[in-house]
UniProtKB/TrEMBL annotation:
Family named by the database record: Belongs to the pirin family.
PANTHER family: QUERCETIN 2,3-DIOXYGENASE
InterPro entries, sorted: Pirin, Pirin_N_dom, Quercetinase_C, RmlC-like_jellyroll, RmlC_Cupin_sf
One Pfam short name: Pirin_C_2
Quercetin 2,3-dioxygenase C-terminal cupin domain residues: 149-235
Domain of life, source organism: Bacteria
Signal peptide (residue range): none
Protein name: Pirin family protein
Annotated ranges, domain Pirin N-terminal: 13-121
CDD domains, sorted: cupin_Yhhw_N (cd02910)
Coiled coil: none
Amino acid sequence: MAKTILHKAATRGHADHGWLNSHHTFSFANYYNPERMQFGALRVLNDDIVAGGRGFDAHPHDNMEIISIPLAGALEHKDNLGNTVITKAGEIQVMSTGTGVFHSEYNANADLPAHFLQIWLFPNQLNVSPRYDQVTIDINSRLNHLQQLISPDPKGAGTWLYQDAWFHMGRFNKGGQTTYDIKKQGNGVYFFVIRGNFIINGQELETSDGYGVEDTDRFSIVSQDEDACLLVVDVPLFS
């Protein structure tokens, strides 16, 4: 029998720093919940809105796979690897921090907010050489379809990371439906609703809800709203 965990939007941790309005699906910074530490390799899923011209000053990371998915606006990334890049909606950013990276992340627009998902995964290899990658994804090709963003395969669609994990995103019309088959036996799947309402294997989900499922190989996904958007994270399970 499937094991499930439902994280309703209103139960997330929340921090409002003025320049940053952040909701934490899992324990992060000053939000601590021993029952919400991670879902397998998925350690952080923050839903962040950054005020115009503001952002995160340079700070270190190591041995973590860090993904940024802009939903609106644009981010300016700088790091000690020599990268200075703008990432906007329709683009995906991955850092394998390995032996250590210093980076900053700022809203690239002075007078418009930036909305993005900040996601961390534990890697399957430690102390790798740090790397930064960014790819552009055709948003139009994800209508009523789960589009692959990230996988373990450097030659696969989208970009890649050091973990047996797959990220997909779909945008659906009302009544739009699809199925998702787990990519690696023993993995679990975490669904995060970016907007709209869905029914996944009979479970009703609303905007910003998270839903983790173990011991299930196939999922039916049905949109209940026009222009609904869903993120699917397929990850190894461990605690």
